[in-house]
Design goal:
Elements: E1 14-15, E2 20-21, H1 26-40, H2 47-69, H3 77-94
Antiparallel strand pairs: 1-2
């Protein structure tokens, strides 16, 4: 199933000189995913609920993967990704 755009009143914001439109809030997206993770791992929820949440997380993952696959590669991108991966490894080792 392909996710479609949500049905809501848009509040488009023009940022910068290029007319770049940013109509999302990264913190709200992170919070939503965090809430899904919490529900999926809540021991009071049954398998029907947690499996449904996991399916939605997979749908988001696939949408993000497809979006990244369609993007250009930018100068410094590989270095930035390497730094982020190293930080993730350090964070995992600290646990």
């Amino acid at each position: 199933m392909i996710l479609s755009a949500p049905q809501y009143k848009s509040t488009l914001k023009i940022v910068g000189n290029m007319g770049y439109i940013r109509d999302w809030d990264i913190n709200a997206i992170r919070h939503g995913i965090w809430m899904m993770r919490a529900e999926m791992n809540n021991p009071r929820n049954d398998g029907f609920v947690t499996w449904g949440v996991k399916q939605e997380l997979y749908q988001l993952k696939w949408l993000i993967d497809d979006s990244l696959d369609s993007a250009s590669t930018y100068a410094g991108e590989n270095e930035w990704l390497r730094e982020q991966e190293q930080q993730r490894i350090l964070d995992i080792l600290k646990k």
